[in-house]
Amino acid sequence: MQETILILDFGSQYTQLIARRVRELNVYCEIHPYNKIPEITDWIKGVILSGSPYSVREKNALIPDLSKIRPKIPVLAVCYGAQYLAQHDGGEVKASNNREYGRANLSFIDRSSNLMKGMSDGSQVWMSHGDTILNTPSTFKIVASTSDVEVAGFSIKDEKTYGIQFHPEVYHTTEGAVLLRNFVIGICGCAGSWTPESFIETTVKWLQEKIGDDQVVLGLSGGVDSTVAGVLLHRAIGKNLHCIFVNNGLLRKNEFEKVLHSYRHMHLNVKGVDASDLFLDALEGVADPEKKRKIIGKIFIDVFEAEAKKIRNILIGRHPFPGPGLAVRILGEITRERVKLLQEVDDIFIGSLHNTGLYDTVWQAFSVLLPIRSVGVMGDERTYENVVSLRAVTSTDGMTADWAQLPYDVLARISNEIINKVRGVNRVVYDISSKPPATIEWE
Ligand code: XMP
Known about the structure:
Layout (H helix, E strand, L loop, with lengths): L3 E6 L5 H10 L3 E6 L10 E6 L25 E4 L1 H9 L3 E18 L14 E12 L4 E7 L6 E4 L4 E4 L11 H12 L8 H16 L4 E5 L3 H14 L3 E7 L7 H11 L4 E5 L1 H8 L5 H29 L18 H20 L8 E15 L2 E14 L7 E2 L4 H14 L3 E6 L13
Parallel strand pairs: 1-2, 1-3, 3-4, 4-9, 10-11, 11-12, 14-16
Antiparallel strand pairs: 5-6, 5-7, 7-8, 8-9, 13-14, 14-15
């Protein structure tokens, strides 16, 4: 565990930016929905309440339960968060007479406040709110004002709880970083020793513990967020990660191919699905902006689910494969050539089982390269080449097994194809032993 700042999200467009600013102070933080507050452990050093598109005056205002947080843990409430605290504690929040958006300058700064230390007179702040705090409860102390907004910042008596109506996280609040540092380092007491590198390490480890041997299907959008998620998961679980990248027909020119290419370059196991027609057909004749978004969202989910199901069926239906791989199916010495030869043979065998619909009727099927050579004749030439054995078994758990009675005509075609296509093989045999007394594998 590590010291953490918890950000409670009320839906502000800037929530992610708050997180970024906290991370820039080398402090780990997590964003959680305002109504899904995680367990408050000793590792949580402070809580930031985000802004919101909603108004605290609305009937359906978003109300957090801070009973486990205040006054134990320091709180910095931004915009909606600040208005919520003011209203909750008995103050008055009203619609602003002058809507307060954009640039403003602090005309009063209480530098004795731990939050406002080091802020300069006239410091530029960025406002973005339609409501304003008119009256504060007696426990509140105003620590910052602008010429239009008296309660631009406040602290609460006997608590390390603060509110500001401006946004410290945005670039245009020129000393926003000073204020956030005051809160995160000064008030919450974070050490500031976290780094993104340690995040990668701990996240990969956490993912490995959480996922174990499970398979994961991940939708990639081509954007940074899902790509980072993909790369972290790939580091954690490698080939057990299955990515899906959907072409919705609304990407930039050649983007589908380019993005797929770069994913593969990152060694992500990704399936590209071209669903352009599905999206464009559904969007035909629709002009309403919200409807367009909803259609795109819904079709994306449909396509993703259908693909995820296909992947699931393939994974669930896939025959077991031994840990040591083809090593236990190459009797005698393993060389690169012998591995390659067996891969070719197996590919034909398994491919034919898929094509004939027999793959799912057997529990396991594979080929074995024997350590002997046998005489054959190809054209007018006598050959002295490798023998491969095909094995297919029926079973429920691998503990006992019977040889699968594959149709002769299928076996005949497979044998023909192997001998004709795989150089170095002149004889194919079919293993008709049950387990016990034989085992499924040959080694
Ligand atoms: P046997 O050959 O013992 O195989 O009848 C029963 C099942 O176990 C698989 N198998 C192995 N799996 N490491 C594994 O992970 C091994 O060394 C190994 N040997 C056999 C075999 O493929 C079959 O599914």
